[in-house]
Amino acid sequence: MCNWREEEDYEFCRDLTPQLWAWQFLRRHPEYHKDYEWFITLWRALEADYGKPPDRDFTRWKNDPRAWAPEHMTADLCEEDKHCASPDGDRVLIECAMGAKWGFYKFPVAPDVALAKVPDQLLWREIDVKPLLVENPEDIQQDESIVTLSFNLAWPLKPQLESGQRQLRGMKAKFQRTAQSYTPENLKRFIRLLDAKKENADIEEIITELYGGDDEMYHDDIVLVTALLSGDYRYLAFTGN
Q1: Model-level pTM?
Q2: Long-range pairs for 11-18 at CB < 8 Å and ≥24 separation?
Q3: Which of 1, 131, 155, 188 is packed most tightly, with the most Cβ within 10 A?
Q4: Total Cβ atoms within 10 A of residue 160
């Protein structure tokens, strides 16, 4: 565990790839810690009863209810996860459910694994972004990264689509300027902030140590860090820094 007060403890950040930046936020996510502990406890119990892969008795393993994830963890499954599903498609193996929920393939990675081992153990899932049909713009969750364009189906679509593309490109450029908050230096400060929060450090001390007394900057960072922990960490994996 790094000492958030000591900047030199974060020298490793200089060599982080986009994929490893994403991992720095996932490994600090309290909910991921809980899920991983739940998963690895079940996994080790299954190994004790049926053997370790590839020598396990998989027939008995898959007949054990502990091998299958609860329904609330299977909402983010995709076509590629079908090999993890039961024949009736109603259940999914716990290791696949973990990956689907948190955005990676391969076996779930321990939060405290050595950084050098992460590239071989972690493979991020591509983010599947699908257009949404919006009948009532007020139904959209307020998110500055989501925009709504309206098209009149009674008029020719081609010129409307071309105009829409131009507008989207302009809005994308504006959004990317905002996304420049995710520079390596800022991301390093964000993970120091998370480490301070985990330690239950005094807010005034955090503001003094990390922000030079600028409480407005601190509150701005809280918003950005909250977004990263809410799922935006996955975008870091596919964005050059």
Answers
A1: 0.78
A2: 12/115, 13/184, 13/187, 13/188, 13/191, 14/184, 16/184, 16/241, 17/119, 18/236, 18/237, 18/238, 18/239, 18/240, 18/241
A3: 188
A4: 15
